[in-house]
Amino acid sequence: MSLLKRMVEAPLYIDIRKGALDDLATVLADQRVSSKGHIAVVMTEGGKKKFEERLKKAAPNAEFYISPGNSLNDAKALAETLKPKKFDAIVGVGGGRVIDLCKYAATLLEIPMISVATNLAHDGVASPVSILENNGGRGSFGVNAPLAVVIDLDAIKLAPDRFIKAGIGDVLSNLSAVKDWELAVKENNEKMDGLAASMARISAEALLGRADSIGSDDFLIALSEALVLSGIAMGIAGTSRPCSGACHEISHAIDLLFPDRTQPHGEQVGVGALFATFLRNDEEKFTELAFALAQHQLPLSHRNLGFNDEEFSEIVKAAPTTRPDRFTILEHLNLSQNRIKEKIKEFNDAISNLKI
Ligand SMILES: [Zn+2]
């Protein structure tokens, strides 16, 4: 008999609204995650100052811990610290670093993890991936996806605008990542997961052509949902493929070659996505993405990120080596250093011709 349905792993509970933080204990009790609120809440010193009072009211039986850092060893140490207490769940309150740390520790302890995002800078809020420092670099580790996701719009608004904009760049890069996936199916005999690809693409399309931006609650809700759905898409695909292609390879190459000059992940992948879209010779998609990035004051080119053409040619050349198993437009074209330089020149001209 053929397989007629499949199980999709997704968070049990997603709460995106103003004041969501204040109902944390109720959510955990209602969803039978923790009836008595015996949970570990992990956050940074900065997060503690901003949110501890509210969280103490929301979850009076919780114990609070300061995040020890963002390395693989920090995550293991956190799990060791929490283990004897036999908590029902770990609640990670913060940005990507705290959430990724807690996802890894919760996976080691085999207990649920609740993701409470206090900024929208990246698509790791609901994803089954932890990015942790390891061996002098940053590694991606497969982990259990969060059991619940809480995004409080009031908390999000306390974060700098640049953090929110970075999240927009990360979501928009899905458009390019899915194109790379389609190319890999055509040219490299890879399999497409249609559901994961649709979710990743629709998340990005939900942000296109909107008149509003980060000042509006409606926009922040759309962005939050897009980040959560992107994470679930990665869970369904079992890989970061739906949200990561040449765009992310270029960003990883910046992190590796110029570690002291990195810009927020979402800004780098936004530029990577626009360059990859340019390489595909798809003028319509190029214009659409460029206008979307510009609307939210995100960088369009490497020059806006602070890299000259020569440096960017090194970055593009090194990009495929950052993910040797991933086939994208960069691997497909396999451009020589000279061709990369020519393409960068044409890319600069194409951006000037947009009249943004
Ligand atoms: Zn990303």
Summarize the structure.
This protein is an alpha/beta fold.
What does this protein look like?
- The chain has 15 helices and 8 strands.
- It has helices at 24-30, 45-58, 72-82, 96-109, 153-156, 161-188, 194-205, 217-237, 246-257, 265-279, 283-295, 302-305, 309-322, 329-333, 337-352; strands at residues 13-17, 39-43, 63-66, 89-94, 113-117, 129-134, 137-142, 148-152.
- The strands form 2 sheets. A 6-stranded parallel sheet has the order 1-8-5-4-2-3. The chain has a two-stranded antiparallel ribbon with strand order 6-7.
- A hairpin with a 2-residue loop joins β6 (129-134) and β7 (137-142).
- α3 (72-82) crosses α4 and α6 packs parallel to α8.
- The model has no long low-confidence stretch (mean pLDDT 94).
- It binds zinc ion (ZN).
- Residues 122-123, 170, 248, 265, 269 line the site of zinc ion.
Structure keywords:
alpha/beta, binds zinc ion, 8 strands, 356 residues, two-stranded antiparallel sheet, six-stranded parallel beta sheet, Rossmann fold
Write the layout of secondary structure elements.
Layout: E1 13-17, H1 24-30, E2 39-43, H2 45-58, E3 63-66, H3 72-82, E4 89-94, H4 96-109, E5 113-117, E6 129-134, E7 137-142, E8 148-152, H5 153-156, H6 161-188, H7 194-205, H8 217-237, H9 246-257, H10 265-279, H11 283-295, H12 302-305, H13 309-322, H14 329-333, H15 337-352
Parallel strand pairs: 1-8, 2-3, 2-4, 4-5, 5-8
Antiparallel strand pairs: 6-7
Q: Shape, please? A: globular
Write the H/E string, N to C: EHEHEHEHEEEEHHHHHHHHHHH
Rg from alpha-carbon coordinates: 20 Å
Q: Give the number of DSSP strands.
A: 8
Give the % helix. Answer: 40-55%
Number of helices: 15
Cα distance, first to last residue?
A: 56 Å
Number of domains: 2
Bound molecules: zinc ion
Poorly predicted parts: none
